[in-house]
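job 3f2a | input accepted
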Amino acid sequence: MAMTTGICKLVRKVSRRRQSTGSDRSHSFNSGGGLQRQGSRSKNVDVHKKVTILTEKQQWDRLGEVLSLLTPAQQCELSKSDEYERSLLHNLCCHSAPLDLVRTFLALCPDSLRKVDYLDRTALHAAAQEGASVDVVRFLLCADPTLAEYQDVEGKTPIILACDEYGMTTMARGDPSSIDKLENLAGAIRHLATEAGPRSLVLEDVYGKVALDYAVSSRVPSHLVQVVRTVTARVRDRMDFALTLKRQNEMMFETKLARLLNEGSFDTAGLSGKNVKNRLTRGHTVVASGA
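job 3f2a | predicted structure (291 res):
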């Protein structure tokens, strides 16, 4: 049922992909990325499109210059999304932008940190999957640690995407760029496993799999698999202990309540299951009506 729900959600979201919003255009930058001079015949390009072009071309110096020259009105255009609902921060992470540019952009457009695309993926999902530098992954997590637990339409967390992508990249070792990507993916997996919210390691996707399952099937290096396995086991032990403690407390309360009822120590008139409150004070149970 969970898998069917996730897939249906994916189909619905893909079918609703909104069209790119490009009605509000700025005319301060020309197509070359510089300021538009008065009297120039160069075609004006809106800020969102200009940043997108420079990001895709990985022209980081020019992009840094453009971001530094934006007016407050132009900065508002940075919050627009493309036809796949991806933010500019998504694109920066997908194209391995350096940390200083990611930091600069996020300072200008902080709301983009938690934006999700049509697959319900955040910029951290993009950074983890596309092999962004570990510094970028660390920075995004420091900005919002809960991003590690965000699940996309298939229930995949950033660490699941990183593990899955490692396997895909391993099969493409003939590409020289795959070496750097594999190193970044390995770094992201380690950081997400050891420094991010531990709960992310036990979150299942719609296929019933967790990060450890993908780490094993994707042939992630054995030492990293061991890290993920160890932390996952530790998290599950803590969760089991917390659940056991909760059940013990509930049983203790029920036992004491039953004894008090049998002894007739108080008037049961007006008491119901949801109105009974208990408080353990110095080893004594106090039962009172919430009515």
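job 3f2a | Strands lie at 276-281, 284-289.
job 3f2a | closed
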